[in-house]
Amino acid sequence: MLSAFAMAFRTPDLRKKIFFTLSIMALFRFGSVVPTPGVSYVNVQECLKTANTGGLFGLINLFSGGALLQLSVFALGIMPYITSSIIIQLLTVVIPRFETLKKEGQSGTAKLTQYTRYLTIGLAILQSTGLVAVARTPGRLISGCNEAIIPDTSWQRIVTMIVVMTAGTSVIMWLGELITDRGIGNGMSILIFTSIAAGFP
User: Fold this and answer.
1) How confident is the model at residue 160 (pLDDT cuts 50, 70, 90)?
2) Which of 71, 97, 122, 158 has the greatest number of beta carbons closer than 10 A?
């Protein structure tokens, strides 16, 4: 196993791909800890220390590498993309147009990928709106904590948070595609692994 790793680092092209993938993973983790504008970072950390983070939000938080409950820029993680991919795959069976595109080969696949991206943005807007709506009331996102996670609940601040989280999902989608094109393995799978592995320590 160690000899295989040593061999990989001796090959210039493979070494370049490994370092590129690692740098994207590091960037992804960085975005997972940067708080969204309008979120009280101090209050969130206080809540995470004292409150119960189990349940549904705790499970989703695992897949986002802890970013969801921190309401970071990458709070939604790769979940909107995974959901939209599943929906598009199911629709290829139901909608004849999608089925035709799937059979067209590379050009059809590119079109379906484009539809997946659009649907991801739509889902990101819906999910970020729901997340902010839950988080604006103390004690609802992180049960047992009555600290104000979002001190300013004006509509301008809420819209800014939704836009930032949606943009964060778009960046994650782009990072995943970069890994697939220029790195090692499937980009989204690598990012899912990074999120789950971040919870181990």
Assistant:
1) very high
2) 71
Average pLDDT of the chain?
83
Cβ-Cβ contacts under 8 Å for 57 (sequence gap 6 or more): 68, 69, 141, 142
Cα distances from 196 to residues 65, 170, 174, in angstroms, run 6, 20, 19
In degrees, to the nearest 5, what angle opens at C-alpha 157 toward C-alphas 152 and 159? 145
- CB contact at 8 A, 196 and 65: yes
Q: How far apart are CA 146 and CA 80, in angstroms?
A: 28
Could you tell me if 156 and 198 are in contact, meaning their C-beta atoms sit under 8 angstroms apart?
Answer: no
Q: Give the amino acid at 62.
A: L
pLDDT tens, 85-144?
999 999 888 888 888 888 888 888 889 889 999 999 999 999 999 888 888 887 777 766
What's the full length of the chain, in residues?
201
Give yes or no for a contact between 131 and 75, defined as CB atoms under 8 angstroms apart.
Answer: yes
pTM for the whole structure = 0.82
C-alpha 12/C-alpha 29 separation (Å) is 26
What is the pLDDT, as a whole number, of residue 71?
80
